[in-house]
Sequence to fold (435 residues):
Amino acid sequence: MIRNPELHYRSRDEIRAFQEARLREELAYLEQHSPYYRALFRREGIAVGDIRRLDQLQQLPVTTKQELQRHNTDFICTDRRRIVDYVTTSGTLGDPVTFALTTEDLDRLAYNEASSFALTGCGADDVLQLMTTLDRRFMAGLAYFLGARQLGCGVIRVGNGIPELQWDTIRRVGPTGCIVVPSFLLKLIDYADANGFDCNASSLRRAICIGEALRTPDGDLTTLGQRIAQRWPALELFSTYASTEMQSSFTECACHAGGHLPADLIITEFLDDDNRPVPAGMPGEVTITTLGVQGMPLLRFKTGDICIHYDDPCPCGRNTTRLSSVLGRKGQMIKFKGTTLYPPALFDILDNIPKVENYLVEVFTNRIGTDQVQIKIGSRIHTDEFVKRIKDIFRSKVRVAPDVVFEAPELIARLQMPPMSRKVVKFFDHRKSNL
Fold:
C-alpha cells in the first residue's frame, strides 16, 4: 500500500484526495477478493467503480458487529497459506471475532504503531516498557512491540500486572516510556509509596495509555487522569484509541487535543442512529473503512464506540481529524430512571470517591422490564452513612442513584479479571436483551 507519514500536515483537500484515491483501490480489492463484500455488492446492485468520492460512501451499506460475527470467515480475502497471525477481538459486546493477518498486515501494524509512538515524541533514543500482554490472541501487544522496534526504540516485554517486577525492570534498565492501562499506574504508585521510593525520581517520563479514558471530550483530565497526574507529575500521559477491527489507532500529540486520525490507514465516518453523518463537535458512532489491509479489510464498519470528532487544525500544525475519548459503547447504553448513562461516566464518579478501592458496575433488566443498575464496591468501610454519601454523589453528578452493595476488595479484583479476559473488566451487562 501507499503510506504517507507526512499526510497529517497536508491541507484538508490534499488529505481528502489521498483518501479518495485509496478508497477506489480498496473497493476494487474487496470486489475481487472478499466473499462477503462481493456478495453484498451483487445483492445490492452496487457498481463499486461509481464510488469515487468520500461523500459517496453514504451509498454503501454499513457493516455491523453482528454481521462480522455471523459471517466471520467470509471476510477473509486471502489464501490461508498467506495468513501468518490469528488474533481475536475482546468480545466486549458479544462473541469474539477472529482476524487473520498477512505479513503485509503485520508490516502495516508496525508502521501504525511507529507513527503513533512518534506522535507522542518517542524516537530511537527511547526505551519502552510493555506493560501489556503479547499472548492471549491480543493484536495490540504484538503491534506495540513491532512498532517500537520499527521506530528504533529499545523494548522490554514485561507483560501486564506484577508491580514488583515492573519496578525491578525500571530500576535495572531505565526505560523512558511505557505502554500501560492507566489504572495500573496507580498500583505502581502505591507500590512505590509502600516501599519507600519516589516514582517521580524514576527514568519513566512518558506513559502511552490504552483501554481507559484519561480525558473528557473537553480535553480535561478525567478523575483517573487527575489522580495519576497529581501523584506522578513527572510522567506525561498520552491517550490512544484503537480496536482490532480497524488495525490502526488514534493517538494524542503533545498538545493533548484529541487523538489524530491515521489518514493514510483508515477512513473514518461519525454516524447517528440512522447512519447519517454528524457534524464535528457532536457525538457519533465511529465507523471505519480500512485502507491497505489484505487479510480482513472492512468497509464502513460500525465500531459501536461513541466519540466526538474535531476537524479544526491542531495547535501542533497537523490537519487530520481528531477524536475525543470514547463517551461510551452503543451496546452498553443504559436507560436508568429516564436518564441515559454510559459506563465511563459511572467509572469517573467512582474513581473520585475516597475509600472506594475498586468496583464493578452491573446492569440488569428488572421485573417491569427496565434497566436497573447495581454497583459492587470493594471497600473497608461498610456503613449506611457511606452508602448514603455514595448515592448523594451519584445524584449530584448524573441525577440518579444506583443500588450499592459492598464486597471484599480482593473478591472484586478477582471478578474484574474473568478467566478468558485480556484486560480488567469493570462493567457487566446482564440485561435479558443481551443474553
About this structure: Residues 12-33 form the longest helix (22 residues). The longest strand covers residues 301-310.
